[in-house]
Amino acid sequence: MPIARLRRSFKELNWGVLAIEMLILILGISISLQVNDWQNQREQRHLEQEYLERLNFDFGESEKVLQNDIEQLRSSVDKLLIGIKPLSKSSLTKEDQLVLFDAVGQSALVGRFAVIFGTIDELKDTGNMRLLISKKLRISLANLYQTYQHIIRLSELRNIMRGQSFPVLVRQLKPNSEGKVIWDEELAEQNKREIFAALTVILQNLKNDLSDTERLAELVVKLKDIIKQELKKD
């Protein structure tokens, strides 16, 4: 009968051999899983290394541009301060008119806040931010990104204020017979108060641009230091 044959089959089984074969099978699966896990970790660490190197390059380039912008913004702030001073006089000399014209020429400069976010955006969009082992690095990247977004929103408001001041300054500009733009000294003499108010608004906004650019540069430098520490670990 089938049941009797099944009983004989069970009795005839070599349970010791079967147990060994099961152990070998389990051990083989376990080793295979460990090897796959090791390979995945190795690939992830290799990818993390690539991202760290790209971030280091991005922030190195960003630092160069930000430092250059800081120098230009500081120079413009100084020229605006010099140009505003003569406006308190009862009348402007030829030299006063020149420094004022130079100051007006600096009024169009604005902060660019040129941070390279290509690698950060890729990390965010692909979900690979988790590959960065350093929690400190991830927090610092998020802080830079949030700070940048906040500064951009503020700069948009500043640009609106600048836009309201530019027409006042442009009135003093006129073309000469050679087609070049020159400064209308007579009109500037008449509109000193309006020019002062317009330049003061632009100066304050330029100072804010400078402060925010310096803030971004500081964050970028700190991030570069963190990334270099992570690269040394590998």
Alpha plus pi helix count: 7
Q: What is the overall pLDDT average?
A: 87
Number of domains: 1
Number of E strands: 2
Order of helices and strands: HHHHHEEHH
Largest sheet: 2 strands, antiparallel
Task: Write the SSE topology.
Elements lengths: L1 H11 L2 H70 L9 H13 L11 H9 L8 H36 L2 E3 L5 E3 L1 H6 L1 H42 L1
Antiparallel strand pairs: 1-2
Q: What does this protein look like?
A:
Strand 1 and strand 2 form a beta hairpin. The chain is 80% helix and 3% strand. The relative contact order is 0.14. It has one domain. The chain has 234 residues and is an all-alpha fold. Helix 2 runs antiparallel to helix 7 and helix 5 packs antiparallel against helix 7.
